[in-house]
Amino acid sequence: TSAAENAWVYENIVLPAFGTGNGGNAGVQAWLGGLKRAGQTGPGEWSWVTGEAFTYTNWAPNEPNNAGGVEAFITIGCDLATSQAAVALAEQHPFVYASIGVHPHEVKHILDGWYGEFRRLAQNKKVVAYGEIGLDYHYNHSSPEEQRTRFREQLRLARELQLPVIIHTREAQDDTITILKEEKASEVGGV
Question: How far apart are CA 178 and CA 184, in angstroms?
Answer without folding.
Answer: 10
